[in-house]
């Protein structure tokens, strides 16, 4: 699907009174901007302390 088709689908959805599903680009833009802010505030971690997945889950 080209960008033009995706843009047209979103515009059609808005006119029909429903929200179109988010695009990969939109999700990426939000995550790229949000994650650094949350990391600075200490709300998400920047690395893992333990060697196993289970140990890292139990840290929470």
Task: Characterise the protein shown here.
This protein is mainly α and 60 residues long. The chain has helices at residues 3-15, 24-40, 53-59. The longest helix is centred in the middle third of the chain and has 17 residues, at 24-40.
Protein topology:
Layout: H1 3-15, H2 24-40, H3 53-59
Question: What is the β-strand count?
Answer: 0
Low-pLDDT segments: none
Mean pLDDT: 83
| Main structural class | mainly alpha
Percentage of residues in DSSP E strands: under 5%
Distance N terminus to C terminus? 41 Å
Count the helices. How many? 3
Shape: elongated
Q: Percent range for helical residues? A: 55-70%
The gyration radius over C-alpha positions equals 18 Å
The main sheet comes to: none
Task: Write down the secondary-structure element order.
Answer: HHH
